[in-house]
Amino acid sequence: MNTWEESCTCEKHGDYIGKFYNLGGKVNHGGNCQECLRLKNKEEQDAKDKEEQGKAKARKIRKREDAGISKRNLFKTFDDYICQTEGQTKAKNDCERYFKEFPSDKSMIMVGGVGTGKTLLASAGIDSIIDDYRCEMIKVIDVVRELKATWAKDSTDTEEKLIKYYSNIDLLVLDEVGSQFGSDTEKLFIFDIIDGRYQNMKPTILISNLDIDGIKDAIGDRCVDRLREGGGMMIAFDWASERK
Ligand SMILES: Nc1ncnc2c1ncn2[C@@H]1O[C@H](COP(=O)(O)OP(=O)(O)OP(=O)(O)O)[C@@H](O)[C@H]1O
Ligand SMILES: [Mg+2]
Ligand SMILES: [Zn+2]
Question: Is 208 touching ligand 1 by the criterion CB < 6 Å?
Fold first, then answer.
C-alpha cells in the first residue's frame, strides 16, 4: 500500500502533518488533525464514563431501595443526624458504634416517641454497611402482609421460604414494632423470624414507639429475651418529635 505524508491545516488547530494512503486506487484521507482526534476520543471516553457512573449510581439506589430504605432517607449518613441534646448525641454515637462493630451477633432495640429519628439513624447505619452485607429494613406490618400473601393459591413464595430468607440475611431491621394490634398469627411469624435469626447468630434491630414492656406485650417475652441475650443494646429516644 502506498502511503505518504503531506502538511495540512486544521481550521481549529492549525498546521499538522497528515498521513495519506492509496487503497485500490482510492486515496483515503487518513491524516486527521491529531488534536481533533484527541478531542473526539476524549469526548467518547467521557460519554462512556458518564454512562458507567449513571449505571453505578442506579445500582446503588436499587440496592438501597431493595434494602427497604425510603426515598426520604436515601443516602443519609450519621452526619445528617443533628445533635442538639445529650440524648441525641448518645443515641447517634451508640448507633454509629453498633454499625462500626458490625458484623456481630448482637441485636439492638431502638425505642422512643414519634419523629425522634429512629428510622433515620437505622437508614444511615444500613447505608454504611450495605456494600458489604445483605440488609433489609421492613415494617412489621409489611412482613406480616408478605407472609400472609403466601397463603394465596397462586403465590410463588411459601411461608417457609420467606421465614428462611428473613432468618438468613446479615441484618434485619424490624421497624414500627407494635404499631398495630398483633394477632397470635402475627406474633408467631415474628417469633419464627427472630428465633430463626437467633439460631443463625444473625443480629436483628427492633424499632418501636412502645417501651420495653409494650414490646414484650406486642411480640412476646421470648422474642425480646433473644434480642437482649449477650448484651444486646437498647437506645431510648426520649425527646420531642423533630417532624415539622
Ligand atoms: N436528630 C435529627 N437530625 C436531623 N433530622 C432529624 C433528626 N431526628 C429526626 N429527624 C427528621 O425528622 C423526621 C422524622 O424522623 P424519623 O422518621 O427517623 O423518626 P422516627 O423516630 O422513625 O419516627 P416514628 O416513630 O414516627 O417512625 C425525618 O424527616 C428525619 O429526617
Ligand atoms: Mg420510624
Ligand atoms: Zn483539529
Answer: no
| 198, part of any domain | yes
Instruction: Tell me: do 117 and 163 sit in the same domain.
Output: yes
DSSP letter for each residue of 170-199:
SEEEEESTTSSPPPHHHHHHHHHHHHHHHH
**Is 84 contained in some domain?**
yes
**Chain mean pLDDT for the chain:** 94
- Name which residue sits closest to atom 6 of ligand 1, judged by CA: 117
Based on the fold, state whether residues 8 and 98 are members of the same structural domain. no
Average pLDDT on 150-156 reads: 95
What CATH number corresponds to the domain at position 158? 3.40.50.300
Which band of pLDDT confidence, cut at 50, 70 and 90, is reported for residue 223? very high
> In this structure, are 219 and 151 located in the same domain?
yes
Q: Is the CB of 115 under 6 A from ligand 1?
A: yes
C-alpha cell at 84: 442538639
pLDDT at position 137 over 90:
yes
In ligand 1, the atom with minimum distance to the C-alpha of 82 is 3
- The neighbour count for residue 204, using CB atoms within 10 Å, is 24
**135 and 199: one domain?**
yes
Cα of 121 to ligand 1 centre, how many Å? 8
Asked if 86 contacts 154 with a C-beta cutoff of 8 angstroms, the reply is: no
138 shares a domain with 95: yes
Q: Which ligand has its closest atom nearest to the C-alpha of 111?
A: 1
Residues 6+ apart with CB under 8 A from 100: none
Is the pLDDT at 230 greater than 90? The verdict is: no
